[in-house]
Design a protein that fits this description.
252 residues; alpha/beta; eight-stranded parallel β-barrel; globular
């Protein structure tokens, strides 16, 4: 059976509030991140991800304060990301109470950052987040919150990140983000079948069967979602009971 599959609510935080958009734009408010995180922890979420989507200097202070509050309120592991550019950022967030730190644009620009985090804090701390879009050339990786394309392809970069010491890959399909038509299962399967580390599915959850598909078709180790949880469209407890009924190992 292997390890239990994980359900991970994701909270995008802007100016101290949770927000959610579609295809990385059209943001709307979704509530207080600490209260939401606490509710998800009590509802049976396995982990949480908090992303600082406006990591300016002032935003960082607000976000770090929030991380400290989250750490005192919840008892499940949580990952934080957004604006992590150097080891001092990682140290600041871990000191505030985070269990893992997610790197994205900074790692694509300077891949050695992954080696440094893994060597200093251990691979289990380093989550490499990848935002990629499928176009006529295949899956292309993007930086700056999905604004700027790079010359790196999804599997190539994910493989390098794993080789450098990342503990997990968090793959978000920009094509599927917020659209609620299901995860990018073919790309997930490509990653899961070729990488030696866990892969987290992100982008596209709209109904409970989409989570099943991410695990059975996409071979993902965990599935992350935002708006379906924030707006009460999917209940985590019911989702886990459904997955268990489908023969998928989950923690209940």
């Amino acid at each position: 059976m292997g390890l239990a599959k994980r359900i991970i609510p994701c909270l995008d935080v802007k100016d101290g509030e949770t927000v959610k958009g579609t295809n990385f734009v059209n943001l709307r408010r979704a509530g207080d991140p600490v209260e939401l995180g606490k509710a998800y922890s009590m509802a049976g979420a396995d982990e949480l991800v908090f992303l600082d989507i406006t990591a300016s200097h002032e935003g960082r202070k607000t976000f770090t304060d929030m991380v400290t509050r989250v750490a005192t309120e919840i008892n499940i592991p949580f990952t934080v990301g957004g604006g992590v550019n150097e080891l001092s950022d990682v140290e600041r967030l871990l000191m505030a109470g985070a269990d893992k730190v997610s790197v994205n644009s900074a790692a694509l620009r300077r891949p050695e950052l992954i080696d440094e985090i893994a060597q200093r804090f251990g691979s289990q701390v380093c989550v490499c987040a990848i935002d990629a879009r499928l176009d006529e050339h295949g899956w292309t990786c993007y930086v700056n919150g999905g604004r700027i394309p790079t010359d790196r392809s999804l599997l190539e970069w994910a493989s390098e990140a794993a080789g450098r010491g990342a503990g997990e890959i968090l793959f978000t399909s920009m094509n599927h983000d917020g659209v609620k038509h299901g995860y990018a299962n073919e790309a997930l399967r490509m990653l899961s079948d070729n990488l030696p580390i866990p892969v987290i599915a992100s982008g596209g959850a709209g109904e409970i069967s989409h989570f099943r598909d991410a695990f059975t078709l996409g071979h993902a180790d965990a599935a992350l979602a935002a708006s379906v949880f924030h707006y009460g469209e999917i209940n985590i407890e019911e989702l886990k009971q459904y997955l268990k009924g489908e023969g998928i190992k989950v923690r209940i």
